[in-house]
């Protein structure tokens, strides 16, 4: 069981509403992408789901229990989060970073166990980082560094993973590398994954479920085919576009028009 949902969730910063009365059920065993323009509340929603922020109104249920009634370590044994822009201390090795994912299972009287070692090695294997285990994290490429942080969340051995824009600042090849890894985790291990993405076309390719937000409210949610329409993109992003089938996988592909291309021709 790995259910996560909100009821009437509202959150505000200094009295300014960011999320308003959100009812959201995260499909178990699926990849859900949160999409929308900057400032629409995507990252705030993810941080609320992870219990990093406490909503002023509403309830978040983790496996049918109010998440704020659960002990911190109990939450961390069920749900892992990778915040945006995580930075490792200088000189920390990949192995040491990944090992930090085992903290929810430790007590002051408990030493490192064979289970801990097994989960760390498994996380390094899944993310293809065994050969880099002794390297300092700050010497890695962007894609390698992001895989190291994902490995740390995997070492927590949780069935729910929350990731805030894990492809930001990566080149296209490394973006696909990270998304392929998350797809494998979902397909091979049944992990429930919630990911904040800016790229609509990547969201359509990799997510089973999309949640489109604007001004702190859910505008649409469902499969990519249900959510990604020309009308929705105009409403949520204020962008004229054409939606065509992705030539590789058949999912919706958003082709922006822009001011100069509404007629399908350039302005030259």
Give a written overview of the molecule.
With 268 residues, the protein is an alpha/beta fold. The chain has one domain (4-228): Rossmann fold. It is 31% helix and 26% strand. The protein is built from nine helices and twelve strands. The chain has helices at 42-49, 72-76, 94-99, 114-126, 142-155, 172-189, 200-206, 224-227, 230-237, and strands at 4-13, 16-26, 31-35, 57-62, 65-66, 79-82, 160-164, 192-196, 209-214, 217-222, 241-245, 252-256. The protein has a six-stranded mixed sheet with strand order 6-7-8-3-9-10, sandwiched between helices. A four-stranded antiparallel sheet has the order 2-1-4-5, with helices on one face. A hairpin with a 2-residue loop joins strand 4 and strand 5. Helix 4 (114-126) runs antiparallel to helix 5 and helix 5 (142-155) runs parallel beside helix 6 (172-189). The longest helix has 18 residues, at 172-189. The radius of gyration is 19 Å and the shape is globular. The protein starts with a strand and ends in a 12-residue tail after the last strand. The model has no long low-confidence stretch (mean pLDDT 90).
């Amino acid at each position: 069981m790995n259910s996560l949902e909100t009821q009437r969730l509202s959150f505000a910063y200094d009295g300014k509403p960011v999320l308003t009365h959100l009812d959201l059920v995260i499909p178990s065993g699926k990849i859900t992408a949160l999409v929308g323009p900057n400032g629409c509340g995507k990252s705030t929603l993810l941080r609320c789901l992870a219990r990093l922020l406490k909503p002023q109104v509403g309830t978040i249920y983790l496996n049918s229990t109010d998440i704020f009634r659960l002990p911190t370590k109990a939450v961390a044994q069920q749900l892992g989060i990778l915040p945006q822009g995580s930075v490792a201390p200088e000189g920390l090795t990949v192995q040491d970073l990944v090992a930090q994912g085992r903290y929810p299972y430790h007590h002051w009287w408990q030493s490192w166990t064979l289970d801990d070692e097994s989960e760390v090695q498994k996380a390094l294997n899944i993310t293809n980082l065994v050969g880099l285990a002794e390297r300092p994290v700050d010497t890695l490429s962007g894609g390698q560094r992001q895989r190291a942080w994902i490995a740390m969340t995997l070492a927590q051995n949780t069935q729910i993973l929350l990731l805030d824009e894990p492809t930001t600042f990566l080149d296209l090849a490394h973006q696909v590398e990270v998304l392929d890894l998350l797809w494998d985790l979902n397909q091979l291990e049944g992990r429930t994954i919630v990911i904040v993405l800016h790229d609509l076309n990547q969201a359509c390719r990799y997510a089973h479920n999309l949640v489109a937000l604007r001004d702190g409210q859910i505008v649409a949610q469902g499969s990519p085919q249900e959510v990604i329409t020309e009308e929705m993109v105009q409403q949520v992003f204020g962008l004229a576009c054409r939606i065509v089938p992705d030539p590789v996988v058949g999912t919706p592909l958003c082709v922006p028009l822009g001011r100069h291309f509404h007629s399908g021709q350039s302005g030259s």
